[in-house]
What we know:
Elements: E1 15-20, E2 23-36, E3 41-48, E4 57-62, E5 67-68
Antiparallel strand pairs: 1-2, 1-5, 2-3, 3-4
Amino acid sequence: MPLQSQKSRIQVGQWVFLPIGKNRLKAKVLEDRGRLGRNKEHVFLVLLPQEEGAAPQEREVAESRLIPTS
Length: 70
């Protein structure tokens, strides 16, 4: 059965929250990687800003883990 095309609730350039443990980190969506991996889940590349003096991190994250800021 082919996957149905569904519009994502997350867009490139949008700020989102990424829950990690008890924390919710604020991240910016850099790239839409499309449907990847097991179960063809929608994946995004996000930038996690860091404290002053530390380099920011980029991570690939499944759409189901991201929470739009507004």
